[in-house]
Write a structure and sequence with these properties.
The complex is a heterodimer of chains A (about 250) and B (about 375). Chain A is an alpha/beta fold. In chain A, about 45% of the residues lie in helices and about 15% in strands. In chain A, helix 1 links the parallel strand 1 and strand 2. In chain A, helix 1 crosses helix 3 and helix 10 runs antiparallel to helix 11. In chain B, helix 4 crosses helix 9, helix 9 crosses helix 10 and helix 13 crosses helix 14. Classes of the chains: A alpha/beta (about 250), B alpha/beta (about 375). Chains A and B meet through helix 2 and helix 4 of A and helix 1, helix 8 and strand 9 of B.
């Protein structure tokens, strides 16, 4: 189903599945949706999360300790889909998909009724198989654009994306920050020259003020580490804590 | 990607610039100590009773290993790019030391990432880096060894890409690194080819080198790739067993995968998670391998075997006592293979073993593992 970004800004919420466990991840996802999240990025933990800062690194290590796998995240997605029509994106590094097989993965993703997949370390230049498999199954592709990306690459990224484009707000890895860098509006402006798809800005967003500020120039804000850290800090009441946080982000939008 | 494209552009220009090459050659000669000797190991040959064994002495280079070849080359490219901050990953510490060395030579700020487990077992090198003026940052995540240091270096690079060059130490990572690093190490093979022709009047039967990331081996192999009769033998870390996690033999236990920007053979579990590895030698303790080696293996041009921790330690002692050379534990894996192979070969056969580094950094480990009278 098409990803809808009804709100301005829409909220894309990321969580590392399996941290602390899959059942809690399901509860967190559903509670977030109820509290106002438009799209959930279901993060697959990976042994070598090179694009992630310490918060998501720790969450990945915890999730991997009890064997959370891509297979399980796909099953979790299917379970969430039974209870909600919100946007669901599988968010993963490439190797787990490569090992499963791109065709097998996209068939399972289609079966789980997710909306699409974002592969962190798959550059658009190497994405032929991903693009054709996702298209075959009517699944959305999402690519990352960076402030250092050239215009030529932004064009390629925009052309290859079918769900939305993820504009990384700064040079760096995931992690909440006090200030939003000035890079973000410029990057979004450049992207809009090449696409009419929704543009979501991510990395570093953790407050309502930042969330609203992003809404002034982008269609959505991705909130990841801030949510993952709330999960880490509230054992036993993860879902309520995240829901409360989500409500505080979206209030008044 | 922008940083990789920028690097590739500068490197391509440098490659075709005679003044770049002349300056690099001069530094390799007057600073690093090239050319390195090709030494006929007479006593070892006699003891093994088979092929004639020659040792390519990369251990005699400044800083004690082949790593300086690549560090000097990349440092000159950094100069051309106008960047002033250099970061690196290091396993055994030799690449870290070589990076700190060239940064001191050219006046760059230097930060080296090293797994805390590696820092413990290669203490001498940690001190050397700091003495040379580099900041050594311990990495406590994951398995606390080389692959985790690479993750942290990559995180630093994407954050500071505008001011910083990532001086990758082996033929790994995204393009242009595998090709560029290999190019800077080709000098080993070029020298060895001229040297063996002078010494023996013919090409060697086999060339043996240890394979961690794959830089010293590709450096000596490359010149001989088109000499189809020359056997190219890479030796991986057999560690202490054949179970996943007990070794770092990518070609026997791994399968194609993507790690840290490269598609090659990777040691991974059934869910596509990258495996921990083990080797007594920090420099071979890595779950992936340079993609050019994957190509040499798949096309049948090179053969890959392994040596266990025990065999490497024994080889260390044997070379020390028959030739008076204490090799790095990494290089000892190549020596372990010639110990097995030479006796089966004809007396007229010639084998070159690449001694990629000296063993001073391994004294602590040698002491722990060897009971000496």
């Amino acid at each position: 189903m098409p990803l809808s970004f009804k709100h301005k800004p829409s909220l894309v919420a990321y969580l590392t599945c399996g941290d602390p466990d899959l059942a809690t991840s399901r509860d967190i996802a559903l509670a977030s949706i109820e509290a106002g999240a438009d799209v959930i990025e279901l993060g697959v933990p990976f042994s070598d999360p090179v694009a992630d800062g310490p918060v998501i690194q720790r969450a990945s290590e915890r999730a991997l300790r009890h064997g959370t796998s891509l297979q399980q995240v796909l099953e979790l997605a299917k379970e969430i889909r039974r209870h909600s029509q919100a946007g669901l994106i599988i968010f993963t590094y490439l190797n787990p998909i490569l090992h499963m097989g791109m065709a097998r993965f996209s068939a399972a993703a289609q079966d789980a009724c997710v909306d699409g997949a974002l592969i962190t370390d798959l550059p658009v230049e190497e994405a032929q198989e991903y693009l054709s498999e996702m298209e075959k199954r009517a699944l959305a592709t999402v690519f990352l654009a960076a402030p250092t990306s050239t215009d030529a690459r932004l064009k390629l990224i925009a052309q290859a994306s079918t769900g939305f484009v993820y504009a990384v707000s700064r040079t760096g890895v995931t992690g909440a920050r006090q200030q939003m860098p000035e890079d973000a509006p410029q990057l979004v402006g450049r992207l809009r020259r090449y696409t009419d798809l929704p543009v979501a800005v991510g990395f570093g967003i953790s407050t309502s003020a930042q969330f609203k500020a992003v809404g002034k120039f982008a269609d959505a804000a991705v909130v990841g580490s801030a949510i993952v850290e709330i999960i880490e800090r509230n054992p036993g009441k993860e879902a309520e804590s995240v829901a409360q946080f989500v409500r505080s982000l979206v209030v008044g939008r | 990607m922008a940083a990789l494209d920028e690097l590739e552009r500068h490197y391509e220009k440098a490659k075709n610039d005679h003044s770049f090459q002349r300056r690099l050659d001069e530094l390799l000669r007057t600073y690093a100590g090239r050319p390195t000797p090709l030494f006929f190991a007479q006593r070892l040959t006699k003891q093994l009773g088979g092929a004639k064994i020659y040792l390519k002495r990369e251990d005699l280079l400044h800083t004690g290993a082949h790593k300086i070849n690549n560090c000097l080359g990349q440092a000159l490219v950094v100069e051309r790019m106008g960047k002033h901050r250099v970061i690196a990953e290091t396993g055994a510490g030799q690449h870290g030391v070589a990076t700190a060395t060239v940064c001191a030579l050219l006046g760059f700020e230097c930060v080296v990432y090293m797994g805390t487990e590696d820092m413990r077992r290669q203490e001498l090198n940690v001190f050397r880096m700091r003495l040379l003026g580099a900041e050594v940052r311990g990495v406590d995540s994951g398995s606390r060894t080389l692959k985790d240091a690479i993750n942290e270096a990559m995180r630093d690079w994407v954050t500071n890409v505008r001011t910083t060059h990532y001086l990758l130490g082996s033929v790994l990572g995204a393009h242009p690194y595998p090709a560029m690093v290999r190019d800077f190490h080709k000098v080993t093979g070029r020298e060895a080819r001229a040297q063996i022709l002078k010494a023996e009047g013919k090409l060697p039967t086999s060339i043996i080198a240890c394979v961690g990331g794959g830089s010293n081996s590709i450096g000596i192999f490359h010149e001989f790739i088109n000499d189809r009769k020359v056997q190219l033998v890479g030796v991986e870390a057999g560690g202490r067993g054949t179970q996943l996690g007990e070794h770092a033999a990518r070609f026997s236990g791994g399968s194609p995968g993507v790690l840290q920007g490269t598609y090659s053979y990777v040691l991974q579990n059934e869910a596509g998670q990258i495996s921990a590895t083990h080797s007594v030698s920090a420099g071979l303790d890595y779950p992936s391998v340079g993609p050019e080696h994957a190509w040499l293996k798949d096309t049948g041009r090179a053969e890959y075997v392994s040596a266990s921790d025990k065999e490497a330690l024994a080889a260390c002692t044997l070379l020390a006592r028959t030739e008076g050379i204490i090799p790095a534990l990494e290089s000892a894996h190549a020596v372990a293979e010639v110990i097995k192979r030479a006796p089966r070969m004809k007396k007229s056969d010639v084998v070159i073993v690449n001694i990629s580094g000296r063993g001073d950094k391994d004294i602590g480990i040698l002491r722990e593992n060897l009971k000496l009278d």
